[in-house]
Amino acid sequence: MEEQIIVVGQCAIDGVSHPMNVREAEIRTDAIGKFIANVNKIIVPYGTKSRERGGSYKPRTSYKNGNGEKVFDGLERQGLEIHRRVAEKYGLIPVSEIMDYSDVDYFLDVPDMNLQIGARNAQNFGLLYKLGARLRGEEEGHPEVLSNDVIAKSNTQGHNKKEAIGALDRLSGIEGNLFYCLRGQCKPNSVSGIDRIINKWSMAAKYLFDEHQHPDYRNLNQFGIIYETAKDLENIAKIMFDPSHMIGGKTDQTRRDIGLYAIEAGKLGYHLMLEINIDANCTQCDADQALPPTLNGIDWGRTQYGEEPKIKPYSFVDIISEIIRHKVETGVVEVSQERLKKDLYKLQQLQYPTPDYTAR
């Protein structure tokens, strides 16, 4: 049975009182890492394991905020060092996005780092060529073959078989695993935009108006094309699904839908990428769509909700619980009902992290 990977964590590693507060950023990342490690202690026998994501280099859509100030775009090397320390402390595999090949040595200095290629770089052939060559040991001066996994996101214009294969082929032959992550397609902003998408991307016409779409979603939901994408990329890459970026957190219902689609994709056996965070009311990147690690002991005042919502989100624990329950019920894993019941109880008993950022 192939191990199912759930990549979870912060969109960006940042501080609470100020995004550049490195000390607070480490406290927050440590608390999330400890929680993920405690989840892994329970779920590994079910063929499922979590890795910790955290952005140190962040490609932001806007360069300036409403006040004309440069937006926060990551702690860069300091963020990678935080990620390294937390991952090593708790025995986690770190996942982070590389934007520029000139930074590759900083990433490869972090043991077992999974390199993420973001949607904006999905067609950056220069980056893909160089990264593939480095990992295969083909770069001059770096003959060692490396085993780092790579997670390549689909581009913002949607999945196109030819372009996806072309991008992934530049990374083919690496020793580590290669994942292709569906993260949603940008919505067209006009009728003519819809026509262009349908004309250019044949698969888009199949799900542009399907039952998985909603006007409040951040992007077009690609749940309806998972199976076809998996067939397109058979023997090329493993399929990962990122409902956080597809659906976003515009409303309480959309945040709940993130969990619903994560559960459905997880039950189908696909790998997942999810944003979870603590103190999400004090984060700079994608706070609205971050799910809580658990609802047990949650202080809603320290979340983006501000108060307990009428429509509660699925937490990371809720999602994992449904996936492992399904694996047992369908015979994917051989675990007794008694063991499952005990492990589900252990998961629900995990406490929401509430770190003290003033402690010395």
How is this structure best described in words?
Helices cover 36% and strands 11% of the residues. It is α/β, with parallel strands linked by helices and 360 residues long. The protein has one domain (4-60, 71-186, 216-349): TIM Barrel. An eight-stranded parallel barrel has the order 1-2-3-4-5-6-7-8, surrounded by four helices. β1 (4-9), α1 and β2 (48-53) form a beta-alpha-beta unit.
Which descriptors would you attach to this protein?
TIM Barrel, alpha/beta, globular, about 350 residues, eight-stranded parallel β-barrel, 12 helices, single chain
Main sheet properties: 8 strands, parallel, barrel
Estimated radius of gyration: 20 Å
CATH topology: TIM Barrel
The strands making up the biggest β-sheet line up spatially as 1-2-3-4-5-6-7-8
Give the helix proportion (percent range): 25-40%
Q: State the total count of DSSP E strands.
A: 8
Provide the residue-averaged pLDDT: 93
Strand content: 5-15%
Q: What is the CATH level 1 assignment?
A: Alpha Beta
CATH level-4 homologous superfamily: Aldolase class I
Would you tell me the structural class of the helices and strands? alpha/beta
- What number of domains? 1
In whole angstroms, the N-to-C terminal distance is: 45 Å
Order of helices and strands: EHEHEHEHEHEHHHEHHEHH
The assigned CATH architecture is Alpha-Beta Barrel
Global geometry: globular
Low-confidence stretches: none
- Tally of helical runs: 12
